[in-house]
């Protein structure tokens, strides 16, 4: 039977989880997924700038111990931002998730390098108003990142706060009283209506018998409640769209046409890569003001765990490092940001994956305009990737297929 809009599930609750690169979105999404009723089907759409597809594997690995994990469908759109240049990758990804898995809730995680306003504008289009019931936009903010002037003065960093309904603040316990006040004032300046959840302060179950308790909610219940709250940000965007004169709307293709099209380059999955390329596989490319590189490696390569960590941390100007790798310490999940180095154990995978994002900098500040990008990227673009390959392969201590 051909898929049409009349046979598509309608009014699916949908939540955006946004935040700048390295803010901690994966932790928040895992909290949301852990709240799923056992009799419901949920779907998660992840957008990554890189092409290897690490975040989906990290989340899938975190769900391995969940007996109900089969009721969570995870799909990745890799190789660029789903909200840039064309709506087609977003349409294809959402259409496939809704038609293939018929979920009762959808969570979307856009790349941390994107401006959320573009995605909000797309999801405010008339078509999605019937297909998706948009809930509160949840944005994750790292207090450690905010402490640095290069972040809080960066338009991309601010954009996530401006377009949030709910702001989840983590990694803020090291801020003193003056910094906490300055952070609150900074948030109010950008978005006076946003609701704020402070994660560490609510990380324990509250004792209702204590006179010092000012709230009865744990962070999980406070956060999970946002799944059923309507988005004020998206309602405003839809109202703005209706009042724009002579507005030109992009014509959306029917679901049947989308389903019959082959995936675009931006929708290429790891399975597509593996079908065309023998392992080991490595890519590198430049996007906006960052350089990306990634490796997909045979599962039987066993890497020296300590040597791998040391090598990754020596990469120039790295902003994010993610991986699922078979090492001398077993399978490990690697999740590095400049303020947080996390390595945990993982179940065995079909392959090892590594992805790095290298950030251009000027005077210890994030590059913020095209001229600065052109002046600073050549040093990163000339990075000797073949030498990186050789150094990485030198860390293989066992290779038994």
From TrEMBL:
SUPFAM superfamilies: P-loop containing nucleoside triphosphate hydrolases. Residues 13-196 form the CobW/HypB/UreG nucleotide-binding domain. InterPro entries: CobW/HypB/UreG_nucleotide-bd, P-loop_NTPase, Zinc-reg_GTPase_activator. Pfam families: cobW. This is Cobalamin biosynthesis protein CobW.
